[in-house]
Design goal:
The complex is a heterodimer of chains A (233) and B (154). In chain A, 47% of the residues lie in helices and 13% in strands. With 233 residues, chain A is an alpha/beta fold. Chain A folds into 2 domains: 3-135, Response regulator (Rossmann fold), CATH 3.40.50; 152-233, Winged helix-like DNA-binding domain superfamily/Winged helix DNA-binding domain (Arc Repressor Mutant, subunit A), CATH 1.10.10.10. In chain A, α2 runs parallel beside α3 and α7 (158-168) crosses α9 (184-198). With 154 residues, chain B is of the alpha/beta class. Chain B is built from 5 helices and 6 strands, in the order βαβαβαβαβαβ. Chain B has helices spanning 29-39, 54-64, 80-90, 105-114, 125-137; strands spanning 20-25, 45-51, 68-71, 95-100, 118-121, 142-143. A 6-stranded parallel β-sheet of chain B has the order 2-1-3-4-5-6, with helices on both faces. The radius of gyration of chain B is 14 Å and the shape is globular. Chain B starts with 19 loop residues before the first strand and ends in an 11-residue tail after the last strand. Mean pLDDT of chain B is 86; it is low at 1-15 and 148-154. The chains are: A alpha/beta (233), B alpha/beta (154).
């Protein structure tokens, strides 16, 4: 029986590239693709893949949040996350969320096939750079930052983190409510709870928080002089 | 290049019906793979090589003399607009097709000033790439119609 793979990334060319990397494998089948986390969760529910590949930085619902939701709905699912950064926070969160494969987008052409193979055999896969960190026990639950700082993340609920992403992407409370099937009042309550917990007072600060904590990933083009429209991925 | 980009500059192509040799340039290997996949649907199009930044693009274009260079804008070491200028100067028979994330009239203008023959926005690549390559191969300018908004597509 073929290994069924679902691919989620917000860039079409990347989705095609990823499909093409995996398609040539006898015994693997790309059963579908999605352009954001929400679509990934919906399609996984219908298509029941064996492996899901998720870009971390997708709009509407990012890869980490999608990982949690996917595993709630299908606990046996094997998940590989793709990311543009290998910050230890993202790695830790990906693992905590339940992902078992971690591939850097820049190395996907080289690593993706190995990642799927590993997960197919019930092993984990980390991009080599990350491997060293894992081996060194860097990601040990007992790890404390060198300067003894308190952990960065205040206790936000998963729902609150979802709301942060949407607000940071510029959606209004009304739009958030509609996307998450909540009343506007509830969405607004989440918003004020978030601002209070994080002690921030503007959407701009919220965006900064979201970027710093990998709730949204920003891809900065190397050359920004031509277009001052830096875009948020 | 001093035409305004809209002229149908039909130089003698020497390529009617023969292989179109394409150089694909983007700093993401997976994106290059995605572009390859789209281009594969035309058997007479041959991807002769790839490059991952502007410096490599210029070097390879100069050496391999492709018919078309697919060029991303945001790349390390040398960006696509600068690479475009240099390629157009040193290898004038190679047409440049900018393939970029940026969907902005300003970027389009800069691409045209830099000598590009076409401009494709990555999110529309599936829809536009084939027509774009066909067009620039015949030395005809390509840009997609803007989706609905302010009509000015230059």
């Amino acid at each position: 029986m073929k290994l069924r793979i679902l691919i989620a990334d917000d860039h079409e060319l990347v989705r095609r590239g990823l499909c093409s990397l995996l398609q040539s494998r006898e015994g693997w089948e790309i059963c579908g693709d999605a352009k954001d986390g929400r679509e990934a969760v919906d399609k996984a529910r219908q298509l029941k893949p064996d492996v899901v590949i998720l870009d971390v930085g997708m709009p509407n619902l990012n890869g980490l949040a999608a990982t949690r939701q996917l595993l709630q709905q299908q606990p046996q699912l094997k998940i590989i996350v793709l990311t543009i950064t290998d910050s230890d926070q993202v790695i830790r969160e990906a693992l905590d969320a339940g992902a078992r494969g971690f591939v850097l987008k820049s190395d996907a052409a080289r690593d993706l096939v190995s990642a799927v193979e590993a997960l197919e055999r019930n092993r984990m896969f980390f991009t080599p750079r990350v491997n060293d960190m894992v081996l060194a026990g860097f990601l040990d639950k007992g790890y404390k930052p060198a300067n003894g700082e308190a952990p960065k993340l205040p206790t936000l609920t998963p729902r609150e983190r979802e709301v942060i992403q949407l607000l940071a992407e510029g959606k209004s409370s009304k739009e958030v409510a509609s996307l998450l099937n909540l009343s506007t009042k509830t969405a607004e309550t989440h918003r004020s709870n978030i601002m209070r917990k994080l002690d921030i007072h503007s959407i701009r600060d919220l965006v900064v928080y979201a970027v710093k904590n990998d709730i949204i990933q920003v891809q900065v083009s190397q050359q920004l002089t031509a277009s001052a429209e830096g875009s948020v991925a | 290049m001093d035409d305004d980009g809209f002229g149908l500059l039909e130089a003698a192509s020497g390529n009617d019906g023969m292989t179109v040799r394409i150089l694909v340039v983007d700093d993401h290997p997976v994106v290059r793979q995605g572009l390859r996949t789209l281009l594969r649907s035309r058997p007479e199009w041959e991807i002769i090589d790839e490059a991952e930044d502007g410096i490599e693009a210029v070097e390879k274009a100069d050496r391999l003399k492709p018919d078309v260079v697919l060029l991303d804008v945001g790349m390390p070491r040398m960006d696509g607009l600068e690479a475009c200028r240099r390629i157009r100067k040193t290898v004038p028979n190679s047409e440049v097709l900018i393939v970029t994330q940026h969907d902005s009239p300003q970027m389009l203008r800069e691409a045209v000033s830099a000598g590009a023959r076409g401009y494709v926005v990555k999110s529309d690549a599936a829809r536009d790439l084939l027509a774009a390559v066909e067009s620039v191969t015949q030395h005809k300018f390509f840009t997609a119609r803007k989706r609905g908004l302010d009509g000015d597509s230059k």
